[in-house]
Specification:
By secondary structure, the protein is α/β, with parallel strands linked by helices. The protein contains 10 helices and 17 strands. Strands 3, 4, 5, 8, 9, 16 and 17 form a 7-stranded mixed β-sheet that branches. Helix 3 packs across helix 8.
Amino acid sequence: MRAAVITAPGKVEVTTVEDPTPGRREVVVRVAACGLCGTDLHILRGEFAPTLPVVPGHEFAGEVAALGADVTELAVGDRVAVDPSLYCHECHYCRLGRSNLCERWAAIGVTVAGGAAEYAVAPVANCVRLPEHVRTEDAALIEPLSCAVRGYDVLRTQLGSHVLIYGSGTMGLMMLQLAKRTGAASVDVVDVNPERLITARTLGVSRTAASPDELDEPRGWDLVVDATGNVAAIQDGLTRVGKGGTFLQFGVADYDARAVIEPYRIYNQEITITGSMAVLHSFERAADLFAQGVLDPEVFISDRLSLDRYPEALDRFAAGSGRKIQVRP
């Protein structure tokens, strides 16, 4: 089969690899679409993935093409979205119900071959069957949505909160949609890319700007979300949290990124700083929200390229072009 392979840091090629075969409790999925994510750029730089080469792609959906010997829950031809998370279920954090912090954490498309290919293998337990009205290729958006749902699980937001989001890429826009769904009084979005802010306005944001300095919020925001991973944005965002507010680190920063905090202010104003890591008991809920129309795929998906153009897709994503970029075998 054809697959994109990150062979070494900075090197990716589309080539022919062996067809996958399922284990006893696994299925082979014929990939309909695979989304690109900031994590893929980290893998390309030699981070995250423990070893290279690897077939990337942890955001994908498709049709079941083959079943393992002990699979009874699905049938060939079923359309599914795939949760890429792979946990040991045995370590300290798994036993606490915090599997996304698993000491042996792994993921399809990160530590094992993923969906940037014609076919991919997944545990049957990681597959969610799609309802009739959901297009298979659109369902690749469920995985990033499940990460956003996890982010809001961490936040435990109150009704009527005032929210500031840094970044209007896919994840920032998803956080915008969920903020509106969870009863925010206002949602402001800042981004240095004016083209991306156009989409935020299309989705019904309260205000947009290139910098929070352009927005009048003298008491700060109840909730500040960084969806960029950019150090400058993170550093600025930490100063924008109002008294009793929360800062969520949601964007994936570089390993060596550093930001300065003000311990006295955190103490004196009871500010919470927290993070959200991947997916935790949120994939099925994200699938339900997606089926109910929380996201419009035509708004979120800006580029649909063939699998053979995967290197180009990575370049586009790295340049900040468009919104969600997908490749399709």
